[in-house]
Amino acid sequence: MYKKFVGLVALSAMMISASVSAKDWKEVVIGNEAGYPPFNSTAADGSVQGFDIDLSHAMCDYLEIKCSFVAQEWSGIIPALQAGKFDIIIGAMGITDERKKQVLFSDVYARAPSRWVIPKSADADTSPEAMAGKTIGVQEATTELNYLKIYYGGTADLKLYPSTEAIISDLKAQRVDAIVLSDTVAQKKIFKTDAGDKFKFVGGPVNINGLGMASRLEDDKLIAMFNEALAHVRKTGQYAEIAQKWGIGSYD
């Protein structure tokens, strides 16, 4: 009788635990920079828009959960996640070994190879030797910065910026000699603008890590949910439609 009672208590505890786990994710708060188009940006009316936003809505619809968005400066996005400001980052975050120590990543949901962008009249050589003494613009807390620190930190002056908008502004104002940023972002914010004919890509893609959604280390069930949702929207063709809308390439 005692063993049966203990077994019933244990079973009840498991059922309660599963129920609580399910209730935990009826609503998910998503964090991103809201300033990294076409992945995420702020519209004129103050709402967030972009590939990350539309993809998030499609995944949340499949999961039958409510999703909302919080804008966060990129350099503080992981600390903000850990502090509970939001539940998951869906914001073009490159998957790296260093970040894996701090967050739990999903499957790759997109790729955004980085490229060098320089004035059209400039020398196309971006080797460490050629860039010695020159100023390279790069966003803080990015995989592009990690790449530049490794290969150019001892020769070039790395000028750090809080946003891609600030980097591009200084490139146009000739306050930096070159910048390194996402190919997709550069296409939209530089080459598809009136100033686009004044600049050029040089060299091939660099820093081609996949992009992942990121949660706190303990939220493995949340990541599993979004991995399932990602697979679903990809299978149904929703992913391709959203990617085409925002000019995002395949991540195969």
The CATH architecture term of the largest domain is: 3-Layer(aba) Sandwich
CATH topology of the largest domain: D-Maltodextrin-Binding Protein, domain 2
Using the CA coordinates, give the radius of gyration.
Answer: 21 Å
Count of the separate structural domains: 2
Relevant CATH superfamily of the largest domain? Periplasmic binding protein-like II
Q: What is the approximate shape?
A: globular
Mean pLDDT reading: 91
Which regions are unreliable across 5 or more consecutive residues at pLDDT < 50? 1-23
Helix fraction?
Answer: 25-40%
Strand content: 25-35%
The first-level CATH class of the largest domain is given as Alpha Beta
* Largest beta-sheet details: 5 strands, mixed
Going across the major beta sheet, what is the strand order?
Answer: 5-1-6-13-7
User: Cα distance, first to last residue?
Assistant: 57 Å
Task: Break the fold down into its secondary structure elements and pairings.
Layout: H1 2-24, E1 27-32, E2 35-36, E3 40-42, E4 48-49, H2 51-63, E5 66-71, H3 77-82, E6 88-94, H4 97-100, E7 104-111, E8 114-119, E9 135-139, H5 143-152, E10 157-161, H6 164-172, E11 178-182, H7 183-191, E12 199-206, E13 210-215, H8 220-235, H9 238-246
Parallel strand pairs: 1-5, 1-6, 9-10, 9-11
Antiparallel strand pairs: 2-3, 3-4, 6-13, 7-13, 8-11, 8-12
Helix pairs in contact: 2-8, 2-9
